[in-house]
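Progress narrative, work stream C.
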Amino acid sequence: MRVILGVDGILTDFWSGVHRWLSSVGAPAPLPHEVTTSEVLELLSPIARAVFEDALSMPRFWRELPVMPEACEGVRALRARGCDVAFLVSPWPSCEAYEKTRRAWLAEHFGAPSRDVMVAGRTDLLAGDALIHDQPREVVAWARSNAKRAHTACLFDAPYNQGWPELRRVTWPRLMELGLD
């Protein structure tokens, strides 16, 4: 079974990274539990927004993102079940070394070979048996594009993606209960 894992919000604790980065330069930053939207720039003051837009263009920001709790154990468990795990990152054009940095981060923390890392802005173009993502629109698009074959589409539960009761929600412990193998 090929399981496609979104990276930010599932493997990386993106919002803690945002908070840490902005706090380090003295810019006001929401705490991770205060985040109610996935659109990070909407939550920031104009000054913090300008600082953060600069940060997003720096490989250092992406390299220093913390790992989500339970993510390493979860990926190991999926592999132990025989799953072919693929990693999905969205393109980030303002950071020239983005793809290289993300591949290195995934290799360091999850042992991900470069060939298992996909950079794509549209999940509906990807083939797999399961998708775990934190963006509802991506889960819906992928499920629709795979409607003619057996698949498992899951929304990784987060404070910023509430309000989609029709989607199967998972956390790392609940994902392990699904029986993906």
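Work stream C, second folded protein:
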Amino acid sequence: MKLYSLLLALLVCAATALFAQVPSAPSPFNLGTGNYSLTSWATTNANGTYPPNMQFYLFGAIDNTLATDETASLWTGSYAATSSTRIVGYANGDGVGFVSTGTAGSGSPANGFAGAAILALNTTNRLNVRVGFTAGSIAATLTNATFRNYAIVLEYKLPNDQLWQVVMGSGGPTDTVQFKAPTVNNNPGTSTISAASQTFNITLPSRCENVPIVYLRWRYYQWSGVTTGTRPQMRIDDILVQSDANTGN
């Protein structure tokens, strides 16, 4: 029991170090009590509140890439915002959305740019941790402008990991679990982002099993180095995390 308590204390310290750049980390949901589910996030939710066991974060750098690793601030703005960088809810139950502009959004300890949702899980005595979710784009049309290339990618991290790891699908070493906003006629005349979506169902790596804390991060980021254009609004929805009991057989 003393050894387990020491191990747990060390993991908590590591988790604290992991989020040293932000005010707090979400508390883990214990999958031993059932499945985790998030199917909506309303525009009316109060500033500074978050879904259970999840928090929303901003990056210090605009147009973050996968090389820009750490989130810098908690999102503290309105979920009904319609301008500037923002993380928003949807009245129609479409989950939570992210969009960056040239103006930083409200954050603590500092303003920043979209963005990520981080979910904490406790997988003690759980195996085969399965994550389902939908990622999508919000329809928009531009005149005399173009869109930048943005995506939502799923990552994971254990407290002792130095970097976030991109979750991989079953299709080989290039099969990253991500959704790229689709563009139509992306040229200076008329450019369109369609209202598209993709549903993912994946199993996390075995190292995410039977641990007190594992973090999942849905990250809104620029996947190619286009230096001009409007950043599309994207969303995540219908998150469901399931697992199996470790029976020891």
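The first strand starts at residue 29 and ends at 30. No further action is required on this item.
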